[in-house]
Design goal:
By secondary structure, the chain is mainly alpha-helical. It is 61% helix and 5% strand.
Length: 161
């Protein structure tokens, strides 16, 4: 998904959440950046283990895009939290021999699989999902599921699972 689409969706949900919770939007964005960074690092650890150690290509194909997302997240997180050694380590990932090999492989085989998640009631979204499933929630006049279906092909994803 393009970063501008991620930012638009995030902005919508932060605005909506903060209007109900009365949290400060900038403060919430700071916490969000930190939690997102941790979550993406967890996912990358799983991708590395399942892909590199267990030799499952679906997971190795996700490492390069995951690192790109992580790089963007740390650029946001740096405004709110100070972890200079962690940020320096993350920035060194693209220079590693393994990452360069994975990036080259992904350029030669750009097809990626997309899975659109539509399960669950969205209970963590609180009141905004009490009457509608999360995939039916309105984001700037379109449901979340419609945005997903329109965005996936724009990202060069050609295989749906």
């Amino acid at each position: 998904m393009k970063q501008e689409n991620r930012d638009e969706i995030l902005g919508y949900y932060i605005d909506d959440f903060c209007s109900v919770s009365h949290e400060d939007k900038d403060k919430f964005r700071g916490y969000y950046a930190g939690f997102s960074m941790i979550r993406v690092m967890q996912a990358l650890g799983a991708f590395g283990f399942r892909g590199l150690y267990e030799q499952k290509p679906t997971f190795t194909e996700s490492i390069v895009p995951g690192v790109k997302i992580l790089m963007h997240i740390i650029s946001q997180a740096e405004r709110h939290v100070e972890f200079p050694e962690l940020f320096r380590t993350i920035r060194a990932i693209p220079d590693s021999q393994m990452f360069r090999k994975l990036a080259e492989r992904s350029q030669n085989n750009p097809a990626m699989k997309a899975m659109i998640l539509a399960a669950g009631k969205g209970t963590r979204l609180g009141k905004i999902s009490e009457t509608k499933s999360k995939v039916l929630l309105d984001i700037n006049g379109k449901t979340f599921s419609v945005l997903q279906w329109k965005t996936v092909p724009l990202q060069g994803l050609t295989i749906f699972s």
